[in-house]
Design goal:
The chain is an alpha+beta fold. The chain is about 20% helix and about 30% strand.
Length: about 180
């Protein structure tokens, strides 16, 4: 560092700051991350296909389960994420405030680093029971299950059906996701 050069502190933001911002953001340990512009068609298509498949199966779930997209998960005052698709088995008032049962992230070139590393670590730490990374370009999904507080890869799915074991059981036919 040059003599006389002052170190600029890294700003630290909280939920109170976050709710005032325009546009789409996620907040990770006080650091804001701008979300990519409107998702590509394939991204939205896969989300819709997941919502339809899962929603139809858990509609009458005795555990009162839900499948949602684009809802903030307030993990702490300084960490707010917005999973692409989340399966919840509890009532939610305005925002998600406890770990979803399962999270699906649709991976793109713009989000690969965040989805495979940053969110992977946070979801694991927060004990999301299953995490699914969906790769539209590869027509593949990677399914991870939390075992002993660590994610273990269960399977790479391309066109098969996979049954998720949560409080609300359902399966996803991955062959029906691809455009």
């Amino acid at each position: 560092m040059k003599r006389g050069h002052k170190v600029k502190p890294i700003p630290y933001y909280t939920y109170d700051d976050y709710i005032q911002w325009e546009g789409d953001w996620e907040l990770v340990e006080g650091v804001p991350y701008a979300m990519a512009p409107s998702a590509l068609f394939i991204h939205q298509y896969i989300i819709t296909r997941l919502l339809i498949q899962i929603g139809q199966q858990i509609e009458n779930c005795p555990e009162r389960c839900f499948v949602v997209t684009d809802v903030d998960w307030i993990i702490s005052e300084s960490t707010i994420l917005r999973p692409d698709v989340a399966v919840l088995c509890e009532e939610v008032k305005d925002y998600i405030k406890s770990p979803p049962e399962i999270i699906f992230e649709i991976v793109s070139k713009a989000t690969i680093e965040k989805d495979e590393n940053l969110k992977f670590g946070i979801y694991q730490r927060e004990k999301v029971s299953s995490y699914v990374l969906v790769y539209p370009d590869l027509k593949k999904a990677r399914i991870f299950k939390l075992k002993r507080n660590k994610y273990e890869k269960v399977i790479d799915c391309t066109d098969q059906k996979f049954e998720f074991e949560t409080r609300g059981k359902f399966s996803v036919n991955f062959g029906r996701l691809w455009y």
